């Protein structure tokens, strides 16, 4: 269960008006995104493939692929501006104050070194522990990650471990520098459902015990629902709705959020027809005058297409990008599950 | 003669090698009359739609082993697996990595060498086909496979249309023009614009590619479709599009579908029955609404409790189903766990909170109390009692309101 976030005004990460261009700067894929992550808070970005969620999270980590760049906006991490930060300064941040876990843990580990060696090396280089101490700390950290027989795991190579164990190893390396922010990009997507639940529990425990803030990215709203205090819904490179997770799930204000809820794993085993969102998202970089979701929206009206739709704050921490938000009635997670049963 | 379209042949009555080959008269209605006795499994009254009674596929006691790298005892990948699919029925096979679900699908398709059991399609043991009989069966297209990754399953250098028509071209079915017409029909059937036929796999989206590979599978009017994780590479909306498509196809074409998934929610909306595999053994099988609302095996219960949900109520904490002693030996380490468990014991015992000394012996699959044999069964020594040991168990395990 997500812990309640700390109060406002304790920002750790502030993303403001960030635009990201891909394809050598010609195509804009993220159109001015703003949000913040407070100390100890878990914030989740959810959206379809191509919504820009991974670009935003890579911008925060300073690891955009070649040809991609932040063209406007600022990213502030505890007083340090991350856009255009020199490489040497990144070395002081990544792995110690900001760290990350991704979908495929095996590809982030060296296959020819034992996992214990790799964690101990991180503890020596990034934390500055002497060799012997690093080894003891590594075993303790594996134990804290819920790895059984940590002494044995220490001497194993990545290929000897299952996907769930590898993700625990990668998490151990990620938190070894006592980071303030952990970026988790589809970190549990490739795992079996039983192991996914264990890794989500582990992330929750790390937050409680270490005061770790988490920026999670997933295409699965249910995973974000399990992990995060607040949710950011992305569509076609824009933030379309944000709010405390429970509020957004119970009473979505944007038709796209409602559609995502309908197609998400509603945890309801009654026989029913799987819901779909008709149509395709607009191509990346498409010039759209009005609402980017209008073509797929059941509530679209002429005013939706007449001009840019602003993200409107409705309450503290609660905002939606829909001109008809106040006049349309949408169903929350509870109503959808019960209503759709056949 | 190369035309081996079996659409109208009666596999039950004829040896496949000697099957009288018919031309292109593909009346789907002719298929339902295939002369195999119904198994007598009635509608369960659990909200499942009426399903044809004709048994199409019957897997009996299937066993398969792989050699262990570096020698030693062979790894038992499938052990005494039973599975039955009726025409037009959609059966889900669920299990985690290493449970043997892909091996099972491959063994049914004749890709793999079972060392025990039989695979009967319309009463003919297709696992014993060799040589010409095997080739003729394969060319008949009666059984088709849909893979997880359509980008790898479709030839990147062939247009979608050429890929879909390939099977027909190889068997020389119809003229070039009539094949093009069939390709258009198949594309429309899976909800794609026939113009997609001229594109390459890399030029269309992931969801469209999976539709194209389904079109490729159904163009020859198969009787059985084996789908191995067809939606796990897709996002939620595309996933549901494909699931709806499969659900529609089995009704329209009366094709039996085995849908393999690690994701329970993919199956919840469309499958009639579910088979839960763990380490190569069937631990539970039954009507999906029953299994998901009142799982009989602790592993099924753990799978359901672990599935993330956008709704919070009625959830059992998955931790209450795991062994109490925190981290568990080999919980997610396949080889080690398998080596550690005593030979012949319950495959799930090492991860089971409710395991006792009785679990050193393999539990038989027994019908759930009050249900006829073959409808709903679980392989657990503690079916009757494990639920009482879960605190707060009433929430998830109560009967569904539907």
TrEMBL record, chain A:
Membrane topology: Peripheral membrane protein
Primary location recorded for the protein, binned into one broad class: membrane
CC per GO annotation: plasma membrane
Residue ranges of domain ABC transporter in the record: 13-261
Presence of the UniProt keyword Ribonucleoprotein in the record: no
GO MF annotation list: ATP binding; ATP hydrolysis activity
GO biological process, one term: peptide transport
Alphabetic keyword roster: ATP-binding, Cell inner membrane, Cell membrane, Membrane, Nucleotide-binding, Translocase, Transport
NCBIfam families (UniProt xref): oligo_HPY (TIGR01727)
Family: Belongs to the ABC transporter superfamily.
Protein name: Peptide ABC transporter ATP-binding protein
Source organism (scientific name): Parafrankia soli
Classification of source organism: Bacteria, Bacillati, Actinomycetota, Actinomycetes, Frankiales
Automatic annotation (TrEMBL), chain B:
Keywords noted in UniProt: ATP-binding, Nucleotide-binding, Transport
A biological-process GO annotation: transmembrane transport
Pfam families in alphabetical order: ABC_tran (PF00005), oligo_HPY (PF08352)
Gene Ontology terms, MF aspect: ATP binding; ATP hydrolysis activity
InterPro entries per the UniProt record, alphabetical: AAA+_ATPase, ABC_transp_ATP-bind, ABC_transporter-like_ATP-bd, ABC_transporter-like_CS, Oligopep_ABC_C, P-loop_NTPase
Domain ABC transporter: 57-304
Family statement: Belongs to the ABC transporter superfamily.
NCBIfam families: oligo_HPY
Protein name, UniProt field: Peptide ABC transporter ATP-binding protein
Native source species: Parafrankia soli
């Amino acid at each position: 269960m997500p812990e309640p976030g700390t109060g406002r005004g304790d920002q750790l990460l502030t993303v403001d008006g960030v635009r990201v261009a891909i394809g050598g700067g010609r195509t804009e894929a993220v159109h001015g995104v703003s949000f913040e992550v407070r100390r100890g808070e878990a914030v989740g970005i959810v959206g379809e493939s191509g919504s820009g969620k991974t670009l935003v999270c890579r911008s925060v980590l300073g690891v955009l692929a070649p040809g991609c760049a932040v063209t406007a906006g600022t990213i502030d991490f505890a007083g340090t501006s991350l856009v255009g930060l020199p490489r040497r300064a990144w070395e002081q941040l990544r792995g110690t104050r900001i760290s990350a876990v991704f979908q495929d843990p095996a590809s982030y580990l060296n296959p020819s070194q034992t996992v214990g060696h790799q964690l101990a090396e991180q503890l020596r280089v990034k934390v500055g522990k002497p060799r012997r101490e690093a080894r003891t700390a590594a075993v303790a950290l594996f134990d804290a990650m819920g790895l059984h027989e940590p002494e044995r795991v220490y001497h194993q190579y990545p290929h000897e471990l299952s996907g769930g164990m590898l993700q625990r190893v990668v998490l151990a390396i990620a938190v070894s520098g006592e980071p303030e922010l952990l970026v988790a990009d589809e970190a549990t997507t490739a795992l079996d459902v039983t192991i996914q639940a264990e890794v989500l529990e582990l992330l929750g425990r790390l937050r409680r015990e270490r005061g770790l803030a988490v920026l999670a990215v997933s295409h699965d709203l249910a995973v974000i629902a399990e992990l995060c205090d607040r949710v950011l819904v992305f569509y076609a490179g824009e933030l379309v709705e944000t709010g405390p997770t429970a509020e957004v799930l119970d009473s979505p204000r944007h038709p796209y959020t409602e559609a995502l809820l309908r197609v998400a794993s509603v945890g309801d085993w009654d026989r029913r027809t799987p819901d779909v969102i008709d149509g395709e998202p607009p191509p990346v970089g498409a010039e759209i005058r009005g609402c980017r979701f209008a073509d797929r929206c059941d509530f679209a009206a002429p005013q939706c297409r007449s001009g840019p739709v602003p993200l409107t704050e409705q309450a503290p921490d609660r905002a939606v990008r829909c001109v008809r938000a106040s006049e349309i009635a949408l169903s929350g997670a509870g109503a959808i599950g019960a209503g759709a049963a056949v | 003669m190369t035309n081996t379209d079996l659409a109208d042949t009666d596999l039950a009555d004829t040896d496949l090698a000697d099957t009288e080959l018919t031309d292109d008269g593909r009346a789907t209605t002719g298929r339902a009359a295939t002369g195999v006795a119904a198994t007598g499994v009635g509608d369960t009254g659990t909200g499942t739609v009426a399903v044809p009674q004709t048994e199409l596929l019957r897997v009996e006691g299937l066993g398969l082993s792989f050699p262990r790298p570096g020698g030693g005892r062979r790894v038992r990948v499938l052990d005494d697996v039973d599975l039955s699919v009726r025409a037009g029925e959609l059966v889900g096979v669920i299990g985690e990595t290493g449970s043997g679900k892909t091996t099972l699908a491959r063994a049914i398709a004749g890709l793999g060498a079972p060392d025990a059991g039989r695979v009967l399609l319309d009463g003919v043991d297709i696992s014993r086909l060799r040589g010409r009989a095997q080739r003729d069966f394969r060319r008949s297209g009666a059984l088709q496979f849909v893979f997880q990754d359509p980008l790898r399953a479709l030839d990147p250098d062939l247009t979608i249309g050429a890929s879909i028509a390939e099977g027909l071209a190889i068997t020389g079915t119809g003229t070039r023009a009539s094949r093009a017409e069939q390709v258009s029909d198949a594309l429309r059937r899976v909800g794609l614009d026939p113009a997609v036929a001229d594109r390459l796999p890399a030029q269309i989206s992931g969801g469209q590619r999976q539709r194209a590979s389904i079109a490729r599978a159904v163009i020859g009017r198969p009787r059985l479709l084996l789908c191995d994780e067809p939606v796990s590479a897709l996002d939620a909306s595309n996933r549901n599009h494909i699931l709806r498509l499969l659900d529609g196809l089995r009704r329209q074409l009366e094709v039996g579908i085995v849908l393999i998934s690690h994701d329970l929610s993919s199956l919840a909306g469309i499958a009639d029955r579910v088979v839960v595999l763990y380490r190569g053994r069937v631990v539970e099988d039954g009507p999906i609404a029953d299994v998901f609302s009142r799982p009989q095996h602790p592993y099924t219960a753990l799978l359901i409790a672990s599935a993330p949900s956008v709704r919070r109520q009625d959830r059992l904490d998955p931790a209450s189903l795991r062994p109490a002693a925190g981290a568990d030996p080999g919980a997610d380490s396949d080889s080690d766990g398998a080596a550690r468990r005593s030979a012949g014991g319950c495959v799930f015992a090492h991860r089971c909170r409710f395991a006792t000394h009785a679990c050193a012996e393999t539990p038989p699959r027994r019908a759930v109390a009050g249900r006829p044999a073959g409808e709903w069964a679980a392989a657990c020594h503690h079916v009757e009692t494990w639920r009482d040991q879960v605190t707060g168990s009433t929430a998830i395990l109560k009967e569904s309101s539907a």
